[in-house]
Structure prediction request, 257 residues.
Amino acid sequence: MMTDEFEGQKLVVVGGSSGMGRAAALDVVAGGGSAVIIGRDRGRVEDTVRALSAGKAWGITADITRRDEVENVQKQLAGEHADATLLVNAAGFFIPRDFVDYDPAFYDSYLELNRALFFLTQTLVNGMIAGGRGGSIVNIGSMWAHQAIGLTPSSAYSMAKAGLHALTHNLAIELASHGIRVNAVAPAVVATPLYEGFIPAEQVHETVESFSGLHPLGRVGSAQDIASAITFLLSGQASWVTGAILNVDGGVMAGRN
Prediction:
């Protein structure tokens, strides 16, 4: 990718303080762009903004599963970052649970996250349309939206990610006339802090690595593996790509060893 690929462009990353979102922000800033990092953990947001000091970066700390905080973020984005032309929706959590063990509050937590992504995207799209410069959006979907894995029962997570895939298709059609491209990546198992929601931090590496054999390429993914696909889709090199759900999964969706 050219070093000036994102010159003069501003990226907003929802869930950008760790993992694939952070890695994508680093790539865009390295390509001459700037970045707005939205995350729940203030320390991680501030650390990511410092890591992006080679370019221009801003941090917004918010729990986007809370509707009042989503509204505050919308106001801040509309007021201070309406010039953003790039968006990555990377926020998410993954906690396997048997279908029969769900309660309404746990189920609703997935719906609230999708609701937040829907309306934060709407806010930024309004700015892209008003600016008339087009734009590019990449959603982080999931292999689990395509198929179920017996070891990780995740019906609500899969349902939420499938919804994000459907949103990708719909927005690709609706926004094409404005020059706004909308795509998604669908990762399999990736070594990120995502799994700290149900695995102690000191055990995450060993547990995640135990899934290496699931992938035909013989290893789990890295945050950079996914970020490289994200930044390609954001960039002008993908100027004729919209509505795509790109499997970045070590070959899982192709079949099994």
The chain is about 40% helix and 15% strand. The helical segments are 19-30, 42-51, 67-80, 104-131, 155-175, 204-209, 223-234. The longest helix spans residues 104-131. The radius of gyration is 17 Å.
